[in-house]
Amino acid sequence: MHIHPLILPALAAVAHAASYSGDLRPQIHFSPPSNFMNDPNGLVYDSKKGIYHLYYQYNPSQTVAGNQHWGHATSSDLYHWTNQPIALSGDKPEEYIFSGSAVIDSNNTSGFFPHQDDGVVAIFTVDTPTLETQNIAYSRDGGYTFTKYANNPVIDIGSKQFRDPQVVWHPETQQWVMTLAYAQDLVIGFYTSPNLRDWTHASNYTQKGLPGAQFECPNLVKFSVDRAVSKETSKYVLFISVNPGAPLGGSGTFYVVGNFNGTHFTSEVAHETLLDFSGDNYAAQWYSGIPENEPPVSIGWASNWDYTAEVPTGPLEGWRSAMTLPKTHTLTKVNGAWVVTHSPFHELSTIKGRQLVSKNLKSGNVQTNFSGVPSKAVYFNVTLKDIHDAHPTGQVNFNFTSSSGEYLDGGLSLDKGSFWINRAGTHLFTIKDNGNYTSSFNTTIPSFGKGTFSFSGVIDRSVLEVFLGEERTQIGTLTFFPTSPLDTLTVSAEGLTNQTSVSVKAWGLQSGWNSTTGSKRFRA
Ligand SMILES: *[C@@H]1O[C@H](CO)[C@@H](O)[C@H](O)[C@H]1NC(C)=O
Ligand SMILES: *[C@@H]1O[C@H](CO)[C@@H](O)[C@H](O)[C@H]1NC(C)=O
Ligand SMILES: *[C@@H]1O[C@H](CO)[C@@H](O)[C@H](O)[C@H]1NC(C)=O
Ligand SMILES: *[C@@H]1O[C@H](CO)[C@@H](O)[C@H](O)[C@H]1NC(C)=O
Ligand SMILES: *[C@@H]1O[C@H](CO)[C@@H](O)[C@H](O)[C@H]1NC(C)=O
Ligand SMILES: *[C@@H]1O[C@H](CO)[C@@H](O)[C@H](O)[C@H]1NC(C)=O
Ligand SMILES: *[C@@H]1O[C@H](CO)[C@@H](O)[C@H](O)[C@H]1NC(C)=O
Ligand SMILES: *[C@@H]1O[C@H](CO)[C@@H](O)[C@H](O)[C@H]1NC(C)=O
Ligand SMILES: *[C@@H]1O[C@H](CO)[C@@H](O)[C@H](O)[C@H]1NC(C)=O
Ligand SMILES: *[C@@H]1O[C@H](CO)[C@@H](O)[C@H](O)[C@H]1NC(C)=O
Ligand SMILES: *[C@@H]1O[C@H](CO)[C@@H](O)[C@H](O)[C@H]1NC(C)=O
Fold it and tell me: Which PROSITE patterns does the entry mention (predicted)?
């Protein structure tokens, strides 16, 4: 499984020649040039240059996990990506670079950057057959090439289950804070450092009752809070990914809302919240370097460890796994409870194409065949008005169909107060191929406040993401694999109370890849 460093340039050449034209290849969501990708790593925004870096867990030699490196891509809008050479590799056989984060050390706290204020430091786990330690590497060229720190590791507690450091700057105490997982102890650890080199254990946090066999990829994220919602101006949210054994099967992510004082996280909620009501959203990471006055931005891994090594994109197209859409988030309150909201980054504005449909209906359906949209990626938004408050009835469904008779459907049940999505109608990979590849997911809609409700979604060849509610407080992320492309959208309404109206809008989305290679500006 190990790859000798000398053959890496050859692998980079393979990456260069990668094709993004496969029928299952997402065009809006990031996926690796070839082979296997999992967790997003090192998400850092270089605000001076306007460049977003995406590093990721990468096996450059096979379409299954193993041989972990940090792959790398850059973007100025999080939708149009340029693949870059691998950023971090192990130094010896059976030494792998596991997940971690990256920060811009603008004050040169690390001392690595004598003549610049835009140096990048990556903080990551090095995994060997017996040990996981935390290590750092610095980049003086804006995050393209890294030098490993001579005195690595920076944290070694002699554990094999100790990983995924996420580092943020805590201005109040003028120090760096690392959040990481004592994976199988189901504990989150916090460490602090003045300089990214010397770390002191600050505290441990456990979310009692959380399901799952391992905690992974924790993120501590500061949210500004609207004064209309709370007297406090900010809160901290701790995101914890668990695998296996998440409540919807396999991998899943929870969050806990509370506060952080520089050393200790304290929960201020009765229980954790599940991030996504569907099966394919894991290990999300939040960008560092986003300006203070802008909302936090995240990207997650749109897959599930239960079946990620078996999905058909491996044998058919030579790659496995996509990231979720980039999203912006806010923290708000719904019915008195804290919730994180989720919106596609910049409302998809840099890739939004021609409007396919804009219609109102009270019953019946609207249909649009979008086979003329080259990306086969579509954004749709369905908005209901004048829902009967006391007795909402009826249903509004969406259905993506293909000429092969396959379909991906879902919808809103006003009677049940629920929303569902279902991939059983796509046939290239089904629950018969893997018993944990659950067909359908659903969630309860807490209320149809003010008589309106909307849902929206992005379909992108083999990934669907739905956003529920005007404030988009619920999301569902689902991979699916049809034998022939889904190219027609039907939205139907039935049984609504007669004053309720439904507005249906859909737009084609433009591919984020240039032609088919995604590597035009590949840096040799
Ligand atoms: C895509 O092509 C356009 C126009 O040729 C160019 O400006 C842009 O830099 C390219 N983007 C990438 C990611 O290669
Ligand atoms: C950065 O830190 C190093 C080591 O402390 C120091 O030599 C250098 O002068 C510093 N550079 C700046 C711009 O502060
Ligand atoms: C940089 O230094 C300034 C001035 O001391 C401080 O306010 C700021 O929080 C520091 N930021 C980082 C990221 O080190
Ligand atoms: C923090 O948790 C880890 C993992 O369970 C444990 O090994 C360590 O002793 C704890 N540290 C403290 C100070 O409690
Ligand atoms: C942070 O919270 C912990 C636990 O509540 C407390 O022991 C510690 O003194 C607090 N630190 C500061 C700076 O308030
Ligand atoms: C499927 O899930 C069950 C329990 O939920 C687990 O025991 C089994 O290992 C999983 N299978 C795969 C292939 O992950
Ligand atoms: C979607 O279309 C398929 C195939 O025509 C059909 O079996 C399924 O019931 C439809 N779903 C909805 C929600 O209408
Ligand atoms: C959509 O239109 C294309 C081109 O006319 C056609 O080949 C395809 O079968 C249509 N899709 C469906 C589901 O009818
Ligand atoms: C919702 O999902 C649960 C399993 O998570 C299932 O038992 C239930 O039947 C589903 N409900 C609907 C309305 O699909
Ligand atoms: C649907 O579109 C409306 C109008 O742009 C917007 O306010 C609403 O938030 C969207 N709903 C969802 C769930 O994205
Ligand atoms: C339907 O609308 C009419 C007026 O537009 C109203 O008189 C009637 O009560 C409504 N029926 C229901 C079931 O809401």
Answer: GLYCOSYL_HYDROL_F32 (PS00609)
